[in-house]
Amino acid sequence: MIATQSNVETVSFYIDGAWEKPQGRSTQQVTNPASGEVLADVPFASPDDVDRAVRSAHAAFLKWRAVPVVDRVQVLYRYKDLLERHASEIATTLTRENGKTLDDAKAEVRRMIQMVEVACGMPSLMMGDSLNDVASGIDCKTIRQPIGVCAGISPFNFPAMVPTWMYPFAIACGNSFVLKPSEKVPLTPTMAVELLHQAGLPAGVLNLIHGGKEAVDALLTHPLVRAISFVGSTPVARYIYATAAANGKRVQALGGAKNHLVVMPDAHMPKTVEAIIGSAFGAAGERCLAGSVLVPVGDAAGPLLDLLVKRTEALAVGDGLQPGTGMGPLVTSDHCRRVESYVEKGVAEGAVPLVDGRTRKTSGTGFFLGPTIFDHVTPEMTIAREEIFGPVLSVIRVNTLDDAIDLVNRCPFGNATAIFTADGKAAREYSARIEVGMVGVNVGVAAPMAFFPFAGWKNSFFGDLHAHGKDAVAFYTEQKVIMSRWF
Length: 487
Ligand code: NAD
Prior knowledge:
The protein is α/β, with parallel strands linked by helices. About 40% of the residues lie in helices and about 20% in strands. The protein folds into 2 domains: about 1-255 and about 460-485, Aldehyde Dehydrogenase, Chain A, domain 1 (3-Layer(aba) Sandwich), CATH 3.40.605.10; about 260-440, Aldehyde Dehydrogenase, Chain A, domain 2 (3-Layer(aba) Sandwich), CATH 3.40.309.
């Protein structure tokens, strides 16, 4: 059923500890990609709304920073417990608004909870260093202090996990936070913030607003915002980095990707194919760690592609809430059309479709496109160069490992890559020479756990300190050096 405007809910802002249904703002529809059903209307925050959220965050910061860190993390322990109890509801909402399969959504919620668990360790993570007698009778120590109001802007593809790369770490460090999630998927972050409210977070420490460029610009230029965390596409990441830095803020801006999966002839083919299917077509290719270019080396192509085509053709495409679905729809009809246009471009530029996702029929009115594999792709083709962010895998055949390394290192993105091989020397050499921040060895999606950094390079990351892990602690704190002498 396509809902009419009258029975559709408006998503709320959460400012200063209270839920608000703003009136008179421009709105956008949130849709279920599997059916086209309208789930909600999302209001777009005005610069005044942003200013209220930031001022509330600033007032809260002045008190929150004085709460001992051991007490601050008690809120996160309670939050973790609530997330565990509501994990299945969150995953269902996530699938309904994003389209990924329920299994993928549950895995995302698990990662979200792990972020909170790691942030609960802030009493240890925030510790400084000390050394007595750096000169006669003089002691020196460093302490880490929170920086103030931090803001986060997140993408549509991980609405549960990506915001938790940011706010649990920021608030555990003693900062306050304003979150502006993707306007395409506001329902999952709303559930997450409701639970944080239930966990007893003081008013103003976390604020939630919705919207687009106008709200983001208001955050980037607000004098009380000290740090910006961004995750999204490369053009926007570059803009965020430049604008926030020009306004005196520290920035971490994670961008898009074009990830290569290199397969050596000695790879374990059945396991490699399973890993490639998960990497290229999991979450319908809407992952910044998704494999997008497959690089078989030497004789690997024959056995690899035979098996890969068979498995891809057997992948069940449908509503992510239905058991047995292997791949869900794309997030919006516009995005589905955009990905389809890349398939058309691949054909027009001379790539050979081994599987053509356009021919895959699915029932219903959702934004479906089946998985596509192109063989005989050249590095100059559009599908080999641009981020597609959909279930399209391009095969570029090379002769040697050196050729593969050259190909990958010429790519302007540097988010993730993988090598599949039984040869430790080849894996070691690839990991050492490759100019990419996250490397999988026989792992198709090299997603770092919460205690490691999300380490994109080149056009996949703008900034110095990455998301989560120890970098998050450094990003959300300022170091102070104290030298003392007693007479
Ligand atoms: P997007 O760049 O369109 O949007 C991301 C966020 O920026 C949203 O909150 C959106 O409202 C806001 N935004 C969009 N246009 C803006 C503008 N002109 N000015 C200011 N703000 C703007 O990205 P998306 O389509 O939501 O997400 C997909 C992209 O995110 C892909 O490129 C993917 O690779 C990337 N991504 C990267 C990572 C990573 O860790 N590097 C993780 C997840 C997603």
